[in-house]
Amino acid sequence: MIERLRMPVSEADLHALADVLTDAVESGAAVSFLSLTRADAESWWRKLFSSPASGAIILVARDAAGIVGSVQLHPSWAPNQPHRADVVKLIVHRRARRQGIGRQLMQALEREAEAAGFRLLVLDSKRGDAGERLYRALGWTVVGTIPSFALDTDGKTPHDTVVFYKELPVKAPA
Description:
alpha+beta
């Protein structure tokens, strides 16, 4: 089940999100962290939740055991880009991968973005990663590849990043 996370977030959801993020980093996912303790992950989520003025939309995927995935949409901060948002941190716990959850999260996020009035979404992905294949399959357009953009979770090995965008339909006035 995919749902929009509402504030305030319960402690149980905070702990589950920290577990998903920690698992992603431990499995080598390129989600901005080199290493991450559970306490660090909880702190990171708490900081994100403490700034609701950002207008971020956070979706989660749940199964019978709890939260197994998440993705975020962050509106552009720039005054001349009210139509644009960044998609960040599509993460799915290893126990729930290869079940279409990433695809469901992205499709739901695109619907949320369109309903919120965004017309242009931007994201990036580690080249060769499952995310890159998913975004291509979902019709995202490749802008280009940036060599040695970030380090893998080993803190030593650089990897290339593929930048994508997707234009959403403009809704006609009602």
